[in-house]
Specification:
Chain lengths: 239, 362
């Protein structure tokens, strides 16, 4: 019990004084997971929209693959990305293994199916007649996509939260492809594991709390936007 | 004859290999209001959305302003010359202003022109005060006003409407139809609309097309369709409750006798003996008398004793269904219902004139 209390006390001290290393680890976590989420949004939303609106042979197989991939184990993703980037691997020429870029790639592979699957569901839950109405307004394909995304913005924000939540908290892929190198690829999750294994519970608790705080503040902001949209934001007056 | 604004030739729509729309020829004249009416599944909406270029026909040709339409790249530009209003408001999850502006934004209209056009049309429909309101918080009537505004602000060459008033309560519906009638009259906008409601069609349309099983079975002025239904489907749709099949027995100068289930009905006009016909008798043409008054002299050539088998209420009127050896429906006032002491099983006498019967030859 003393160990935990001591740990929490030191954690607060560390958080208040924010040393450079902790700051760097936090910012890298935010950068890697933020970028992976952004890329996943750029890939997942259009793909989810296309899957929701089009009919083609093999569509069902692709959708089931996307749905299965929503629960991809991070260690499997880590293993796959490591093999691809390993010396002699198909993408070895990129020299990305044990870099933040490799971590972004791995986290994108984890988040993209989550965002694709939830975007697909978000677009599919819209009234099919709405599509006909948008068409009747004379919208081009691009304009139609924009209308639909605007209509599905609340569930799409939820997809964004789910994607970010999935990658900020994962460790398996980050440690495998990043290597937890001090000052280079160490992020909050990998640092927490390392400090725990060394018995530095105070630092581990501090890093864990930081991770929770980071995840919570991002999701809190997105939730505020989402809920404001749900209650008040429906009246954007741009007259 | 002036060139029609829209023309369809040999138009066919097939679904799962079955023909659901078959329109050999249809003209929509410039500035006219055409109502498409008919029972459920008649193909009204399919025809409307095909004419609005939202469905691609399986065969046939549509001409807009004399030019044949090709379903390729230029289709969006043609669609932008039309506007469509659906039964459900289908409003976007944003403000009323943004909803009305949406079609204009699609067309690249911005700034002062956009604002001016939006507010001009919001005023026309009396909803300018709702501009900032979230569209999803509107009542059904307000929401449908917004969809009509969203369509008319586009200044379309043709306005297509698919049962736009069907989901509204009667007072709201009547107010909106009155406003729409005024706007259509003032703007002279070519309008094609689908409705189930014959009074709506009569109020707004210059021509009525009655559809059944994917075909237009009669098209013409409201007076023509109402007074001279082409067949029993049209007769039924326009509210003729008693449509009696029979055979012409005797032709006697100006009238002829038709055998309807063993009863002889006298009809004004000409016919060949042996003709198979439908006799259409409007419920408002049938007079009911107390059973003791049957012997009074009358100009009505047809008088039949009957028994009341059903009494229903339609607004201020009563719909009385009789068994006279054949079914016969009469509309009477509630006052008459009381005077005649009508009840189920009561014996009465029904009479109607030979000239009040419309004959459809099979």
């Amino acid at each position: 019990m003393d160990l935990i209390l001591e740990g929490i006390k030191k954690a607060f001290w560390l958080l208040i004084h924010m040393d450079n290393e902790v700051m760097r680890i936090t910012l890298l976590s935010l950068k890697v997971s933020g970028l992976a989420t952004f890329i996943s949004l750029a890939l997942g939303i259009p793909l989810g929209t296309v899957l929701a609106l089009s009919r083609f042979p093999g569509r069902g197989i692709i959708i089931s693959l996307v749905n299965t991939s929503m629960g991809l184990p991070p260690v499997v993703v880590g293993l796959f990305v490591t093999i691809m980037l390993w010396r002699g691997g198909p993408l070895a020429v990129l020299h990305l293994l044990y870099t933040p870029s490799a971590m972004v790639i791995a986290q994108t592979i984890i988040a993209a199916p989550i965002i694709t699957g939830l975007s697909l569901a978000a677009i599919q839950q819209l009234d099919p007649k709405l599509l006909l109405q948008i068409k009747a307004l004379g919208a081009s394909r691009l304009q139609m996509g924009w209308f639909l995304l605007r209509e599905a913005r609340l569930p799409l924000l939820a997809a964004m939260m789910a994607g970010f939540g999935g990658v900020i908290s994962e460790i398996g892929a980050s440690i495998m492809v990043g290597g937890n190198i001090l000052g280079h690829t160490r992020v909050l999750t990998t640092a927490t594991v390392m400090e725990t294994s060394k018995g530095n519970f105070d630092t581990a608790i501090a890093l864990g709390l930081l991770l929770l705080l980071l995840a919570y503040s991002i999701n809190f902001t997105l939730t505020i936007i989402q809920q404001r949209e749900a209650f008040y934001g429906r009246a954007h007056f741009r007259g | 004859m002036a060139e029609p604004i829209l023309e369809a030739k040999a138009l066919e729509v097939r679904r799962d290999n079955s023909l659901i729309l078959d329109i050999p020829h249809l003209r929509v004249e410039d500035k006219e209001v055409l109502a498409l009416v008919g029972p459920n599944g008649a193909g009204k909406t399919t025809l409307l959305l095909t004419l609005a270029l939202l469905y691609t026909p399986s065969a046939g040709e549509i001409k807009f302003e004399g030019k044949s339409i090709s379903y390729g790249k230029g289709l969006i530009n043609l669609r932008r010359r039309f506007a469509v209003v659906f039964q459900e408001p289908l409003l976007f999850d944003t403000s009323v202003y943004e909803n009305v502006a949406s079609g204009l934004r699609v067309r690249g209209i911005r700034g002062r022109e956009l604002k001016q056009r939006v507010f001009t049309w919001l005023d026309q429909f009396g909803i300018a005060h709702l501009a900032k309101r979230a569209a999803r918080t509107l009542s059904g009537g307000e929401a449908q006003r917004v969809t009509l505004t969203r369509a008319l602000v586009l200044n379309p060459n043709i306005l297509f409407m698919d049962e736009p008033f069907a989901s509204l309560d009667p007072p709201t519906r009547e107010r909106l139809i009155r406003d729409m009638e005024r706007i259509v009259h003032e703007t002279k906008i070519t309008t094609v609309f689908v409705t189930h409601d014959r009074s709506e069609a009569l109020q707004l349309a210059h021509r009525i097309g009655v559809m059944h099983q994917g075909r237009i079975i009669q098209i013409g002025s409201p007076e023509r369709v109402i007074n001279y239904p082409a067949d029993e489907v049209v007769a039924n749709f326009i509210g003729i409750e008693s449509i009696l099949p029979g055979r012409v027995m005797v032709f006697n100068h100006e009238t002829f006798l038709v055998d309807v289930q063993g009863k002889k009905i006298e009809v004004a006009g000409e016919a060949q003996v042996g003709d198979e016909v439908f006799l259409c008798i409007r419920p408002e043409e049938v007079t009911l008398l107390g059973s003791g008054l049957a012997s009074l002299p009358s100009s009505a050539r047809n008088t039949f004793p009957g028994r009341v088998i059903q009494i229903g209420f339609i607004g201020p009127y009563c719909k009385v269904t009789l068994d006279c050896g054949f079914p016969l429906v009469a509309y009477i006032t509630k006052k008459s219902l009381g005077i005649l002491h009508l009840d189920i099983g009561r014996e009465v006498v029904a009479s109607f004139k030979a000239t009040a019967i419309h004959v459809i030859r099979k």
